[in-house]
Amino acid sequence: MKAVVQDTYGAADVLQLREVDKPVVGDDDVLVQVHAAGVDPGVWHLMTGRPYLVRVMGYGLRTPKVGIRGRDVAGRVEAVGTSVTQFHPGEEVFGICDGSFAEYVCARADKLAPKPANLSFEQAAAVPISGLTALQALRDTGKVQPGQKVLVIGAAGGVGSFAVQLVKAFGAEVTGVCSTTKVDLVRSIGADQVIDYTREDFADGVRHWDLIVDTAGRRSLAHLRRALAPRGTLVIVGGEGGGRWLGGFDRQILRAPILSLFGRQTLRPFTSKERSEDLVVLKEHIEAGKVTPVIDRTYPLSEAPEAIRYLEQGHARGKVVITV
After folding, report:
1. From 40-44, 121-125, 249-253, the region with the lowest mean pLDDT
2. pLDDT-derived band of residue 93, with 50, 70 and 90 as boundaries?
3. pTM for this entry
4. Does the pLDDT value for residue 245 go beyond 50?
5. Residue 182: DSSP 8-state
6. Cα–Cα distance list, 14 to 48, 50, 65, 216, 260 (Å)
7. Superfamily of domain 2-127+293-323
8. Where in the chain is the domain with CATH 3.40.50.720?
9. pLDDT (average), residues 123-141
10. Is 139 exposed, middle or buried (0-12, 13-18, 19+ CB in 10 A)?
């Protein structure tokens, strides 16, 4: 089968389209014929091995432990392991796995769910990682409540575009922060207000929000706290920018919890959990018409390096998807 493979860490040039062996399904696995695969910032981190914390976390110190890139997947079940009872050959599924930039991939059954009936494979592949991140950041970490005022920073991105729609689904009021060219998009997916950060500062000391979800990852905690209500909650999603060792994760996993000890505002780091039951929750929202994936561009499998380069530029509106 064809797959996008890397032998060393580096820029997108390290990715190569090769013929590799088709994976063999394990007892607890589902063999999926891949139709589409999402591209998220995590793909870039695993490709480059940066920040170096990624390597220490078990992805391979000198070379990638998993040589095929891609984690979001949507496709059709080809075969199931002897212990798998919830899926059957021919069923359309979506979810998370290692190595989805390929014609076939083995995924754990507890990280898959039936594909939303009203989505194409390309749309479904845009959902898992970004959708789960937005859902859990709002519901589990942010404890969003109906009627609250919520600020989503990076509202036009992969996670942000889901977060805006989910805030509305939870009955709260949402303000999206984005650049000028993306204002119309953020408004079209349901934002009550949109702030163009190139023209105005949301942290002006006048406006305050009960919950802030920061998906952009580069603003200082002091700046974010100025926009937070006195007893508000800040949820920090991801850690972009920063140095080679920790990237922006020092802001998330070190400084935020310490600052929370000395004030009434709650600053919470966030780590998503890859679980099928939350994929089902997203499926229900999507089929009810409350959430729709936003796709900027699709690329064929052979152009996966170009897809990652485009995402790295930071101009994507919603998600970038690989078609197989």
Report:
1. 249-253
2. very high
3. 0.92
4. no
5. G
6. 9, 14, 15, 26, 41
7. Medium-chain alcohol dehydrogenases, catalytic domain (3.90.180.10)
8. 130-269
9. 98
10. middle
